[in-house]
Design a protein that fits this description.
There is one protein chain. It is built from five helices and five strands, in the order βαααβββαβα. With 168 residues, the chain is α+β, with helices and mostly antiparallel strands. The chain has a five-stranded mixed β-sheet with strand order 1-2-3-4-5. The chain starts with 11 loop residues before the first strand and ends in a 15-residue tail after the last helix.
């Protein structure tokens, strides 16, 4: 069963039973972000099958934490209300990254019918606790316009590094 922190919703670690719902919520995340980069017009659904395979592998990985909130107060037939996925990457230590451990929040999403109930906040607090326990030196995330106020309230600030990307 999930654990409650204060009056927030019960958050629990995802299990294999949750895979279909995790894939659904992850797809919803990209639909909500919109735009050609996140939801290209030419995209097919092949990535969903690959996502299910990787999520299944990652459910028990030491460097990954997937937290969920059950829908309808835990009724199994109601699916998941929300999920959040985090990873830890070991990089080379440096002056601003003493142990080289960087956390990444790679997707917090709430089903539209469950929004504005504190699910994302509860999941983020659980993920931040997990990062602290593992002595992560920094946590990075990309915020949607809707999520940015929550992340800033939790202590996230503008990233000092310039970001570029390359796609082969």
């Amino acid at each position: 069963m999930g654990q409650r922190k204060g009056n927030g919703p019960a958050v629990r670690q995802a299990v294999e039973y949750d895979l279909v719902e995790l894939v659904r919520l992850r797809a919803l995340l990209f639909e909500d972000l919109g735009g050609h980069f996140f939801s290209p017009a030419a995209a097919d659904d092949d990535w969903l099958d690959a996502l299910a395979v990787v999520l299944k592998e990652q459910l028990t990985a030491d460097a990954v934490r997937i937290l969920v909130v059950d829908g309808a107060d835990g009724a199994d037939d109601r699916g998941l209300a929300a999920c959040g996925i985090a990873t830890i990457e070991q990089r080379l230590p440096g002056p601003h990254l003493r142990n080289g451990r960087i956390g990444h929040v790679i997707g917090v999403v709430t089903d539209p019918s469950y929004r504005r109930r504190g699910h994302s906040r509860s999941i983020m607090r659980g993920l931040l606790d997990w990062f602290r326990e593992r002595e992560v030196a920094r946590v990075d995330l990309y915020a949607s316009a809707e999520g940015e106020p929550l992340y800033r309230e939790l202590g996230f600030t503008d990233h000092p590094d310039p970001a570029l990307y390359w796609r082969p």
